[in-house]
Amino acid sequence: MLECMMARVFLAGAGPGDPELLTVKAARVIAAADVLLYDSLVDPRVVAMARADARLIDVGKRCGRHSASQAEICRLLVAQGRTGALVVRLKGGDPMVFGRATEEMDALRAAGIGFEVIPGVTAATAAAAALRCSLTRRGVARSLHFLTGHGAESGLPAHDWVSLTKSGGTLVVYMGGQTLPGLAAHFIEAGMAPGMPAVAVESVSLEGQRIMRGTIGSLPGLVVDARAAGPVIVLIGEALAEPDALDSLLLQIEMEV
Ligand code: SAH
Question: What pTM does this model have?
């Protein structure tokens, strides 16, 4: 508790984009920050919540564009932390989900700099909200798996495709927009029915949000055709089946009687 109250460095989740989805605490430290280090997935409106005289450092990392290396970001974070300034390191979504937070926390610990982590709304749950679809469902989806779609050297990661398929849970793939054709082929080869519901959501919670609905067999083609410019998250599993319009209408009538 004492460490938390004394922390001058915060690793904070910026959520999926919509500034309204920031936590109250993240909004508070952003507004108070002397220095703000942020990634490219952090929405400009969130960065604009900083004080006019705050130092803004874009350490943006997106495929193709120049970005600071992870080692440089760690060095920068430690250097800023040492000055005693109020430093906020903002990461898209939740810092602890595919956010390279371990490297940054290790660097801060090694330098003896106290820090606090502020969680954020991760892309998976923001997508579920956009789809109005629960990621878990009694008797249908009993587990939830967050996977990366991106392996070393831009290839596919070495997942245990059979176990994931057998789990019958909901699979959420981060960073899988480019590798979806390969991922889908692995799942189908591992025994997943080609008709398994699958949905891709681009730019969740932002103006450019697009929802692509299909099956594990059809979704890769839909995503390639859509030529997404924003980040894409892919959700796979029975829980993603579109609610039958007639069923929900009947349910509504039943409830009204
Ligand atoms: N820490 C982040 C994830 C970083 S990895 C989080 O918790 O959400 C980057 C991946 O996250 C993207 O490739 C994409 O799969 C997903 N992502 C992040 N923001 C997104 C958004 N607004 N819409 C769709 N996918 C998003």
Answer: 0.91
